[in-house]
Each structure stands twice: as C-alpha cells, then as structure tokens.
Amino acid sequence: MSCLHRTVRRHPSLLSKTHVAFFSSYLDRPTSFPLKKVKVVLLENIHPRAIEIFENEGYTIETYKGALSGQELIDVAGDANILGIRSKTQLDRSFFESIGWHNHRLWAVGCFCIGTNQVDLAGAAKYGVPVFNAPFSNTRSVAEKTLCEIIALQRKLFERSTDLHTGLWKKSATGAHEVRGTTLGIIGYGRIGSQVSVLAELLGMKVVFYDPLKCLPLGNATQLDSLQELLQVADGVTLHVPATSDTKNMINADTIQLMKPGSFVINNARGTVVDLHALADALKSGHLSGVRFLNEGTSTTATNIPEVDLGVPVSGNIRILHMHHNVPGVLSKIHAVLSDYGINVSAQFLQSNSQHSYIILEVEPFHAKLITRELKKIKETIFLRALL
C-alpha cells in the first residue's frame, strides 16, 4: 500500500525522519494524506482516458476545456497537486513564483504532448516541481500527416479539390508529380523524423537527413554533414526539431536561397524555426512552390501560418490579403478603413493561430494604392497585398 493513503505508525524516534522523507512541510497531516484530497487539474480538453485513470486512483479531478492564463490560471491551479496541460497553457517563472514556496501543493506538471517549451523548466525545478511529457503520444500521427502533406503538395490535391468545389473540371496534370524518385530532406532525425524517413522510403523517395547528433539511419537514409548540404540536394524539406535558440529561424532568407527553385518546406515542428517574412518573400518570388498563394492568396497546406482559402476570385473584384498579429480589434480597424472609403466587402475568410491572423477579403474595385497605404498604417500589420 502506498504511504499516501495509508496511516503509517512509526517509533517516535523515527517519526521526524519519516516526515522529512515522505511528506512536505506544508501538508496538513504528517503521516497520512487520503487520495481523495489529491487534486488533479486538467486543462485544454485532455483525453477522457486520462480522467478515467486518475479517477480510478481515487483522486479528485477538475477539467477545463480551454487554456488558462494569468490570475485565472493561478486561481484554478494554485491549490492543485497535479496539473495537466497541453501546448497552449504557458507556465512561466512568474506562475511558479506566484503559487509560492510554502503555500503551494503542486507536485507535478504533466504535458500531454511532446513539447515542454511552454513550461519554464528551470523555474519548475527551482520549486521542486517535476515536469513530464508524452514523447511518443503523436509520433506516428505527425509522421503520417507529413507524408499526406508531401503527396498533397506534389500532386496539387488542394488545388484540384478547390476547382471541383467551384464547378471547374480540370484534367490537366501540369505541376503535379509523383513523389517516387524525389529527394526528401528531413531536418531532425528524432522519433518523428525517423518515422517520416521510413514511410517516405516505402513510397520510393530518396531520404537524406541532417541532425547535429550522429544518428543510426533507418533503411537507406543518408545522414548529411550540414544543413546547407541538405537544402541544396532536397526537392522538399520537412522539419522535426524542438524550439531552441539554435533552431530559431533556421529556415531564413539565406537558407531558403540554398534550396532548389520550386521546392517545398513543411514545418511540423515549432513556428519559431521558420522566418515567416523570409518565407513570404520566397513565395512571392516563386523560389518556393506557392502559385496559388501568389495568385489567389490561398494559404492551404501552409504549416506556419493560418490556413485560409476563399476560393476562386470573382471576376472584376479586388482581393486583399492581410496578415497581422493575433490581438483583439484588428478586424474592426480593417473594416473601419474600408467603411471610411465606402468600399463594400462581398466575401471574407479569417483564420488565426496563437500568434498570427490571416484574412482574405474580396471587395469591389477601388483605388488599390490608396487603400493599401491606409491598411499598412494599422500597427499590427505583418503582411499586406492586393490582388488586382
């Protein structure tokens, strides 16, 4: 039986040592802590199976569908013994400091995902809170998703699907290619990267990879000595690296220029590993594949910006592409500018992620230079273009 739910009898001379070894000084009862009093707080709609496991242990469970932050997070998790999160809840040093050294009861943080960059690991360690993750939780899922995206990009599946939904039947295979015989470059050969390697090779792709550590290649994959060498030989690149100071903006203007014209980048790692502005420039110039993004603003299959598809532009209208920081009020500012000039919006599509929002607006003809100049004045603007 665990000492957490069983009253332990000890000789008086051993009691203080037992207390120090098994119990923290801030617990109410020195020799007993009923499991029903163990409070587990699970945020971000964690899978019911986890709830079932904790309930079977006799713990008290509180669940929340979304992520929490600030004082709300402290109010909910301040008296928790176990805190379960996914990737959106940020546990920074101020969180661990705010719950206090002597008052808090937090025993562990469980990240129900692969990454732990949303947690200040040093701050947690300072207060004696171990942080656990689930390194194999979605390894295969991400690997399969990556292969799907590679095939979709190479065979132009999204373009053909959109055409069909708009009533267009195009039998042309222009720009669509088999993946067999192409070279896939994998950056990061860990659990996910190595799985992608195996699956890609089964499809007939030649696999090369770069990892700062010496890795055992699976199948016929080849480890290259440098990132630069990989970018020069690959027909497409997929990233599977953690968010660190070394990987921040590793795909940037300089590294993109090393890539083959018309190649693709898939970022199924962290958003910080790709320089968004450099990627946008490469798409505009045509150096990287992105014809539909250039002609229609469609960002479907993009892996580091929100996916938006407004369909085929209506003849005679003008399409505005506006990417901005995801903060409240920006959409109102955009509409205010258009309203001031009497411009009617016939269609729009907005999608957001944790950092960015991307909106496509289809509007009646107007003086493009004048309106885009006004929209650029919105301080949250990252990228703006008008398709005439």
From TrEMBL:
It holds the Pfam family ACT_AHAS_ss. It comes from Aphanomyces astaci (Crayfish plague agent). The keyword Oxidoreductase applies. The keyword Ion transport does not apply. Belongs to the D-isomer specific 2-hydroxyacid dehydrogenase family. GO terms for biological process: L-serine biosynthetic process. Transmembrane segments: none annotated. This is 2-oxoglutarate reductase. Its EC number is 1.1.1.399. InterPro entries: ACT-like_dom_sf, ACT_dom, AHAS_small-like_ACT, D-iso_2-hydroxyacid_DH_PdxB, D-isomer_DH_CS, D-isomer_DH_CS1, D-isomer_DH_NAD-bd, NAD(P)-bd_dom_sf. One of its GO terms (molecular function) is phosphoglycerate dehydrogenase activity. Keywords: NAD, Oxidoreductase. It comes from the Eukaryota.
